Structure to design on (109 residues):
């Protein structure tokens, strides 16, 4: 995610929390901090939060795009099981068997 989108998402979350406070408790945090709803800085913050909401709109659809591109990549190796080197190689076992056969022949003679 780009830096601008992260900043926009953070401001959008702040705006959503402010709207939650207005809805549940009839308390406007931005207005309380910056001197009322008519103060210039409050209006700037409200405007920035609104613009950030517009910037975050592509994030709504980006998640679906990522899932669609990842899914075929996971299916490419389906059915091709690789057991290599997990339990050792067979050549190691055959070498041990050959050595024990030689030792057994030496002991019999």
């Amino acid at each position: 995610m780009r830096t601008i989108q992260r900043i926009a998402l953070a401001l959008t979350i702040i705006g959503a929390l402010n709207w939650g406070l207005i809805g549940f408790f009839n308390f406007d945090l931005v207005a309380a901090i910056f001197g009322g709803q008519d103060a210039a800085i409050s209006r700037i913050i409200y405007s920035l939060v609104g613009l950030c909401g517009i910037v975050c709109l592509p994030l709504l659809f980006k998640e679906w795009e990522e899932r669609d591109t990842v899914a075929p990549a996971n299916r490419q190796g389906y059915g091709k099981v690789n057991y290599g080197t997990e339990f050792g190689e067979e050549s190691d076992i055959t070498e041990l068997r050959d050595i024990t056969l030689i030792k057994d022949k030496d002991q019999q003679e």
